[in-house]
Design goal:
This protein has helices spanning 11-16, 33-41, 56-69, 89-98, 112-118, 132-141, 164-174, 188-196, 206-209, 218-226, 249-259, 264-267, 273-282, 305-323, and strands spanning 22-24, 45-49, 75-80, 103-108, 124-129, 145-149, 179-182, 201-204, 232-235, 243-246. It is an alpha/beta fold and 329 residues long.
Length: 329
């Protein structure tokens, strides 16, 4: 399959040395070598998900495996979450640096100590957050770019419920570093809209989840294709740990329990990551909770990554150069 020939040049492509202003962000259980290498080969920026790997040593092996598939730039996502028994973040971080990775996507808690370690090692840091106030804090810490998650996104949309149409330009107005638009993006129309709002790139999760190379059971991909924007559910709102997931038997049970006054201990087993991993591996969408965004409403096929990136870029170029130009008097 031929490479993508259309181009859009932005601050993001210039600063991070990739061809297209498209990112495949970290996705737990999904950000593995097969998908990330395919994204890199298509000229976009893909991220392995560090905590998908059970140990720092396993992450080093996955980085090496990815390099066997591509010689292009790719990064690693390191998500920092509060935990009673946190993973050895410093060891994962050391592996990232020692493996020669040049781009990291951080998410979750403010990544102060990680930025302080990555920057002297020549690693660029993109911090993913859900509010302008957190984006400003990340910029103050010295990150190279901010990925801002609108309310449409899969996973954790934060607690402010601000959609991208407002959140993205608000972030652009207040930040000096490049802004990456995340949440609800799946095609060239979304890319042009993000650029018009001032963003330098788009970050897609659900759209890349539904590609041939994504290491996810075919049943789950087909469910995304048949689902609509109405088929997601917000859970954990009562605990101020909101998550957007596929609407299924488990998510509805979680919502019912929490609405009735249950505490986290009462739903811990239902929302466990191990159950979500089983969904992706076995293909039964009702085995656990699993993240999916509103963008599934505009996803209608399961293409190879290269075809998807080509389609998005070519559609965006046509929109800018042909269809929107006709609107000029």
């Amino acid at each position: 399959m031929a490479a993508v020939t259309a181009r859009l040049s932005t601050r993001f492509t210039d600063q991070f040395g990739v061809e297209h202003p498209i990112i495949q962000g970290g996705m737990q259980w999904v950000g593995r070598a097969e998908l990330v290498a395919a994204v890199a080969e298509a000229g976009a920026l893909g991220f392995l998900t560090a905590l998908t790997q059970p140990t720092p040593e396993a992450l080093a092996a996955e980085i090496a495996r990815t390099r066997e598939m591509t010689d292009r730039t790719f990064g690693v996502n390191l998500t920092i979450l509060p935990s009673i028994t946190p993973p050895p973040y410093a060891e994962y971080r050391d592996v990232i640096i020692e493996s020669g990775i040049r781009v990291v996507e951080t998410a979750g808690n403010i990544p102060a100590e990680h930025v302080d370690a990555f920057r002297p090692a020549g690693v660029k840091v993109i911090h993913k957050c859900t509010s302008v106030r957190h984006a400003l804090k990340a910029q103050q810490l010295g990150v190279d770019a901010v990925s801002i998650d609108g309310f449409e996104c899969a996973g954790h949309p934060g607690e402010d419920d601000i959609p991208g149409l407002v959140l993205i330009p608000r972030a652009v107005d207040l930040l000096d570093v490049p802004v990456i638009a995340s949440g609800g993006f799946a095609d060239g129309r979304g890319l042009v809209a993000a650029l018009a709002l001032g963003a330098s790139a788009i970050n897609m999760g659900t759209r890349f989840l539904c590609t041939e190379e994504a290491p996810v059971h075919q049943n789950i991909k087909e469910q995304i294709v048949t689902a609509t924007e109405l088929d997601t559910q917000l859970i954990m709102r009562q605990l101020r740990n909101t998550s957007r997931v596929a609407s299924n038997d488990v998510s509805r049970r979680v919502a019912e329990l929490l609405s009735g006054g249950a505490e986290f201990a009462d739903v811990r087993d239902l929302v466990s990551g191990a159950r979500g991993r089983t969904v992706y591996e076995q293909g039964d969408p009702n085995l656990g909770v699993w993240s999916v965004g509103l963008s599934q409403g505009i996803i209608h096929d399961i293409p190879p990554v290269l075809e998807l990136v080509r389609r998005i870029v070519e559609e965006a170029v046509e929109l800018v150069d042909v269809r929107l130009r006709t609107l000029l008097a």
